[in-house]
Amino acid sequence: MAVTLDDSFFQNPHAVYADLSRRGAVHRAQAWGGVDVWIVTRYAEARELLADPRLKKHGPTASSLFPPGNTTTIGTVLGDNMLFRDPPDHTRLRRLITAAFTARSVRGLRPAIVDIADDLLTTMSRQAPGRVDLMQSLALPLPIRVIGELLGVPPELRTRFSSLVIPILGSNLSDEVDHARIELTQLLQTIVAAKRTEPAQDVLGNLVHLRDDGDRLSEEELLGTAFLLIVAGYETTVNLIANGVLALLRNPAQMAALRADRSLLPAAIEEALRFESPLNTATVRYTDEPVCVDDVEIPAGELVLIALLGANRDERQFHDAGSFNVFRGDNRHLAFGHGIHHCIGAPLARMEAEIALDGLLSRFQHLELIEDEPLQYRSSTLIRGLLSLPISIGGRRPCRSGAG
Description:
Elements: E1 3-4, H1 7-11, H2 13-23, E2 26-31, E3 35-40, H3 43-50, E4 55-56, H4 59-64, H5 89-100, H6 103-107, H7 110-125, E5 130-133, H8 134-139, H9 141-151, H10 158-170, H11 174-197, H12 203-209, H13 219-249, H14 252-260, H15 265-275, E6 285-287, E7 291-293, E8 296-298, E9 303-306, H16 308-311, H17 346-363, E10 364-369, E11 390-396
Parallel strand pairs: 1-2, 3-9
Antiparallel strand pairs: 2-3, 4-6, 5-11, 6-9, 7-8, 10-11
């Protein structure tokens, strides 16, 4: 019998994945209100399939596999970018984007990220002691402001930019999303046009002028890539910060260890990525030919979801996988995917989360989860993200966090 990926699943996917994994690596499921899919829940099979060229990501073809009348679409907001492309198109686009999205350009954002985090934490500290929603106070605004820096959005346009991005990523109202998408496209076109006449050293400016043996991004690819950087850079980081803080709040001994030894921060970030991955599943793929998984044949032309949350808590790969442990070694999680579609923004997400957690622990001596009602997660097959994270803060420290 197919498992239904409905709201009860969204609120507690770990129990579903544990049950499925006990029975096998791949199962039939229904997602998005009745679309038949295959879901892969074990680590070894998930890692292998993430890099399997028989699983395709071409957006229009994947969309055609959805039943008529289903409102789920692929790539309409993201546009024309490498997320929904296969080689050789994906290879070309990733090469161009990697040349602009360099390690140096990411490192260069650190001072700005520290300043943004410090500004947000200072605003939070004015409410101490008291109650704040960490999502609204830190986890949501930090990445959107960093994306503004990444894309080189002029200061006078950043408030408008943020107001357009948020409904695209968080609204369930199709009219609101469509309106915001159109306006954001126009805003990005204006920014790109300005960068053509006045080159800038931000990532978008690099993409505008980058050439590789005469090759360059088309206007559609450029805008699609900007959308991709917005969506991928926002969702992953928001949920990494919030899910990581929640894990620490529920594991006080782990938080105490991290307060005492900040050299554990990188390992804590990796454990947060494993323990409560920002993405529930990888973006949808489809089989181009029959694929055998754990003695089960998935026919050609079938939609496949790879459960990153399930794989990252697979006891076959991780000892005591259901426990959060900042001392965990050899943490080869799949939170950022694997293979040619491994998240290009992973270093930036890690850096933002590290700065945010370091600043939060430095600024507040007291952090406590408020559980006067159950926490609610977004109703999403793709995203593992909280709607809110109410916490009590105290022990305000007025000095800068020193997170840089």
